[in-house]
Write a structure and sequence with these properties.
Length: about 210
């Protein structure tokens, strides 16, 4: 995979993360997020604190997946089942993988909430409902911001103001000229939405949506 962001690559990873029976595979989910980190990195250093947090969350999931209990982390569904059964959900002891006190479920919940933000933001851009800075702030206030303390909300607000205008932003997606990129975006939003909805239902069913 190249270092350059590609929207199509992200769509493909999230699509591949969905099994026929609507399980979500961890490896492809993480791959999708790795792609998004490239976008964050291309947005400049003001997005560095966001990118760092995402990278950190991904490395926790990767180490759980690569650890001795890795087979249980094949899918989000198997992770939830395993961590619930083993009493690990609230942050158990995973000594071998070096993730003591941090559960896969609570880590993924952070990414899950962020995916909603991304879905709202990209949806707004694809429908041309405003400029990227405005749409990104709006999407954030409708989703992730309620889970963040003031200091993060204000840093995020500053970063969003640095987002480029619509056409340069669309070009950064590496999906062709703006009209074509809009089309690809239009295809991305439902895929992100499906992954989001399945995860939301899974977490809600097991009462995991407020994990500390
Ligand atoms: C323009 C493309 C945007 C796509 C990616 C969106 C990623 C959003 C991540 C926001 C992270 C803000 C800074 C970190 C905050 C953490 O405190 C917070 N993490 C998240 C992902 O919300 C909560 O994690 P914590 O502190 O409970 O481990």
């Amino acid at each position: 995979m190249s270092e350059e962001f590609s929207l199509q690559e992200v769509i493909d990873s999230f699509k591949l993360s969905l099994s026929d029976s609507k399980e979500i595979f961890m490896d492809q989910y993480v791959e999708g997020w790795r792609g998004l980190v490239k976008l964050l990195n291309s947005l400049g250093s003001v997005f560095g604190f966001i990118s760092k947090d995402v990278v950190n969350k991904l490395s926790i999931l990767v180490s759980l997946r690569g650890g001795p209990e890795g087979a249980h982390y094949l899918s989000l569904q198997s992770m939830v089942q395993y961590e619930l059964q083993s009493g690990l959900v609230e942050g158990g002891d995973h000594p071998a993988s070096g993730t003591r006190g941090v559960s896969g479920c609570r880590t993924l919940l952070r990414l899950h909430r962020a995916l909603r933000w991304l879905q709202l933001f990209l949806g707004g851009v694809s429908r041309d409902e405003g400029t990227p800075p405005t749409l990104c702030s709006l999407a954030y206030s409708q989703s992730l911001s309620q889970h963040h303390p003031w200091v993060i909300r204000s840093a995020a607000g500053l970063a969003f103001r640095m987002l480029p205008p619509r056409d340069p932003f669309l070009r950064m997606l590496n999906a062709g000229e703006p009209p074509q990129a809009v089309e690809v975006l239009g295809g991305a939003v439902p895929v992100l939405g499906e992954v989001y909805t399945i995860t939301e239902e899974l977490y809600s069913k097991h009462d995991l949506l407020n994990l500390p």
